Amino acid sequence: MRGVVFSGDRKLEFMNFPDPTPGPGEVVLEMKASGICGSDLHIYRATKDGPGLGLKGIETTGPIIRGHEPCGVVAAVGTAVSETEARVGDRVMVHHYWGCTVCPHCRSGWSQLCENQTPLVYGINAHGGHAPYMKVPARTLVPLPDELSFEAGAAISCGTGTSYAALRRMNLNGGNTIAIFGQGPVGLAATQIAAAMGAQVIALDLNDQRLAQAEQLGSATIINSAREEPIAAIRALTHGKGVDLALEAAGSPQARLAAIRATRIWGTVCFVGAGGQVTIDVGPDLMQRQLTVFGSWTFSTVGQAECARFAVDRNVAVDRIFTHRWKREDAAQAYQMADSQTAGKGVIVS
């Protein structure tokens, strides 16, 4: 089979790989949808002669099939896989991490936090979903409800699931006003879900096209931070007090600092944007305003299933986050579009 491989310097190629065969405890999926995530761009942009086409702290060896938002149908089942774990024909998402399986984090569905080894991250240091087939342990599978499309399942497998988990950790409720900094795929998903949870959403970005999509997905107010000073604009909308909650999904120091300073006393700030730094004045920015500030990294297997069920029960049209659908052979164009950071989310469909 042919899979999409990043070759460095914003280039990709198709390479031939053997069709996967499931071993004990494993399954092979026929891919139906494989999302394109903002974190993929860190690897896509890496230099060819750099330290390796992986993420910080995760080494790679050999060419890796990319795509860490896989969704598809079980095509083959290995030995030692029970019918309760997987059957041929099951519609499934993948929790795209795999660790030692025995530490407390792995046993509770948080394999990305494995205490005993660097986890496998499918699409990063193990083969992912940008190919016709993908082999994974059966225990990474998360059922895809019949009411959701494969594209929706791909989004929930990382970007949408990440947003949902962060909002749940923030204890968002319908009485809250939340500012969401950055309206890339993760920020747009957060806007959509926060609106479905009943909150009043203020969406911020530098790009009018993304802000227009945020408005369509339920944002009550949009702010272009290139034209308006975001902290002043937010305070003007909140009687001078600031928002109850702020979610940063931009990965930039400016957005992170603005999220902190636009939040009211006793408010909560969450960072989900990958990479980057922020420098704060601990006294006036944090302590003297009694802020709670934390980071949130993806989700557990339980949280992924809960996000899918939430989307069904609240009639969240997850598919609306996609602005582009691509065939696998058009992957180069798909990543060029994603790299421009002007559109919504893209997905490769089979």
Structure characterization notes:
It is a single chain. The chain has 350 residues and is an alpha/beta fold. The chain has two domains: 2-158 and 299-349, Medium-chain alcohol dehydrogenases, catalytic domain (Quinone Oxidoreductase, Chain A, domain 1); 161-295, Rossmann fold. Helices cover 27% and strands 26% of the residues. The chain contains eleven helices and 17 strands. Helix 4 (159-169) packs across helix 5. The radius of gyration is 20 Å and the shape is globular.
List the helices and strands and how they pair.
Blueprint: E1 2-8, E2 11-16, E3 26-36, H1 40-44, E4 70-77, E5 91-94, E6 97-98, H2 104-107, E7 120-121, E8 133-137, E9 141-143, H3 150-156, H4 159-169, E10 177-181, H5 185-196, E11 200-205, H6 208-216, E12 221-224, H7 230-237, E13 243-248, H8 253-261, E14 263-271, H9 282-286, E15 292-295, H10 301-313, E16 322-326, H11 331-340, E17 345-349
Parallel strand pairs: 10-11, 10-13, 11-12, 13-14, 14-15, 16-17
Antiparallel strand pairs: 1-2, 3-4, 3-8, 3-17, 4-5, 5-9, 6-7
